[in-house]
Design brief:
Distance between the termini: 43 Å
Strand order of the largest sheet: 5-4-3-2-1-13-12-9-6
Helix content: 25-40%
Strand content: 5-15%
Largest sheet: 9 strands, parallel
GO biological process, one term: defense response
Number of helices: 12
Number of strands: 15
Radius of gyration: 22 Å
Protein name: glucan endo-1,3-beta-D-glucosidase
Organism: Phoenix dactylifera (Date palm)
Structural class: alpha/beta
Catalytic activity: Hydrolysis of (1->3)-beta-D-glucosidic linkages in (1->3)-beta-D-glucans
InterPro entries: GH, Glyco_hydro_17, Glyco_hydro_17_plant, X8
Shape: globular
């Protein structure tokens, strides 16, 4: 794996801060971003897909799922759940898809029977194909993607379903500091440029699998986990990085910029942290896994973006849904899951809906607190009406006015989050006090940031 950052160095106290969350909580995915999960099935003790689909839809705030195949039973299980589903084509099928007839057949057999009820939104062609270093496979990747898109056009599905392919950070020849990020020589113009051209033309995202876990050391563990640290300065830009994921994403962005593709969306297709590992695996423990994934989701949904991509959100898929006991490799490979096979949490990162969480997770003292925030899909005009309503009820709205501690970000979501929570806390903290015409939801994660403090 390429380098991803140097050891954090001493910095002025004014800069020694964690990243500042600029919106509300894990329950809010600002600007269309979403929180997803990778649903792998390499285990002999996992629940049936139908049970999994209902659990995700009813008991969690996860709004998208990435599958590693097109198993019919699994696709049918997600019927009428409204969860956005990404399906994956295995690497070995990619050469066959360079034949347009086969691509049309594949769409007919694996997409059309399910699309009426299952919300399939992306087809992922292989996984980390370029890093596999199979020249024949790599040469087939973009033609296969083009043929699948052509087949989708023929079925009038090109606007609903996008075609992409996830990549590891192994596609980079350089990544430290982030501003010098560039793709591997030879692959940059022969593979990545045609791929990015296709993604731009079809409105599809560039998908990457960044894993700070694999790049961290004992000296950089806090930096990798989004914990308080001294930060890393990119001397070329003067920008400060307070977490490793931002550095990895900006290295990808820099590589795309060299080829002229800064307008292509980036999606985090896989990232996660194991709750258990072998003795030599740094940070493979429960506390680290909880901190990484909890902070990851808050950061991804916050709208802060990265130093080179400010004010952006990223669809983010956590790896993985379950601990999978048949995965080969070190102990960590079998312990990336958010949930045990019985669907109880391995640790709590706040993605269970309140009712489900009360049933499954024994709260600690700090977890007993509740905040009211807007739902991810709440209409902006509706939220503005809620802001005006709450401010007319005698709630102090000065903090969201210009100059106030919670004025930034100046968005309906950010302002509504503060005033809805003030109303909820002031009028009894009952569930109906956070309804707001079904635009509010109760969160277990403190949405406070900087000097903007949310009451609990």
């Amino acid at each position: 794996m390429p380098a991803i950052g140097r050891t954090p160095t001493a910095m002025p106290a004014a800069i020694r801060t964690l990243w500042i969350l600029s919106t509300v909580s894990i329950l809010e995915a600002v600007g269309g971003s979403g929180i997803g999960v990778n649903y792998g099935k390499l285990g002999n003790n996992l629940p049936p897909p139908a049970q999994v689909a209902q659990f995700l839809a009813r008991n969690t705030v996860i709004d998208r799922v990435k599958l590693f195949d097109t198993d019919p039973a699994t696709l049918q299980a997600f019927d009428n759940t409204d969860l956005a589903i990404d399906v994956t084509i295995s690497n070995d099928l990619i050469p066959n898809l360079t034949n347009l007839s086969f691509a049309k057949y594949w769409i007919q057999a694996n997409i059309l029977p399910y699309i009426a009820a299952t919300n399939i939104t992306r087809i992922l062609v292989g996984n980390e194909v370029v890093s596999a270093a199979d020249k024949s496979l790599i040469a087939s990747l973009v033609p296969a993607m083009q043929n699948l898109h052509t087949a989708l056009v023929g079925a009038s599905l090109q606007h609903k379903i996008k075609v992409s392919s996830p990549h590891s950070l192994g596609i980079l020849a350089a990544s430290a500091p982030p501003s010098v990020g560039r793709f591997q020589d030879g692959y940059d113009t022969a593979v990545m440029k045609p791929l990015l051209t296709f993604l731009r033309a079809t409105g599809s995202p560039f998908m990457v699998n960044p894993y700070p876990f694999f790049g961290s050391t004992r000296d950089t563990l806090d930096y990798a986990l989004f914990r308080l640290n001294s930060g890393v300065v990119d001397d070329n830009t003067g920008l400060t990085y307070t977490n490793m994921l931002d550095a990895q994403l900006d290295a990808i962005f820099s590589a795309m910029k060299l080829l002229g593709f800064t307008d292509v969306e980036i999606v985090v297709a896989e990232t996660g942290w194991p709750s258990m590992g072998d003795a030599w695996e740094v940070g493979a423990d429960m506390d680290s896994a909880r901190d990484y994934n909890k902070n990851l989701v808050r950061h991804a949904a916050s709208g802060i973006g990265t130093p080179l991509m400010p004010n952006r959100t990223f669809d983010t898929y956590i790896f993985s849904l379950f601990n999978e006991n048949l995965k080969p490799g070190p102990t960590s490979e079998r312990n990336f899951g958010l949930f045990y096979p019985n669907m109880t949490p391995v640790y709590d990162i706040g993605i269970l809906r309140t009712e489900a969480r009360d049933q499954q997770v024994k709260p600690m003292a700090s977890d007993a607190k509740r905040w009211c925030v807007p739902k991810p899909d709440a209409d902006v005009m509706s939220l503005q009406e809620k802001i005006e309503y709450v401010c007319a009820q005698g709630i102090d709205c000065n903090p969201i006015r210009p100059g106030g501690a919670c004025y930034r970000p100046d968005t309906a979501q950010g302002h509504a989050a503060y005033v809805m929570n003030e109303y909820y806390q002031s009028f009894g903290r009952n569930s109906f006090d956070c309804d707001f015409g079904q635009t509010g939801v109760i969160s277990t994660i403190d949405p406070s940031y900087g000097n903007c403090i949310y009451r609990s």
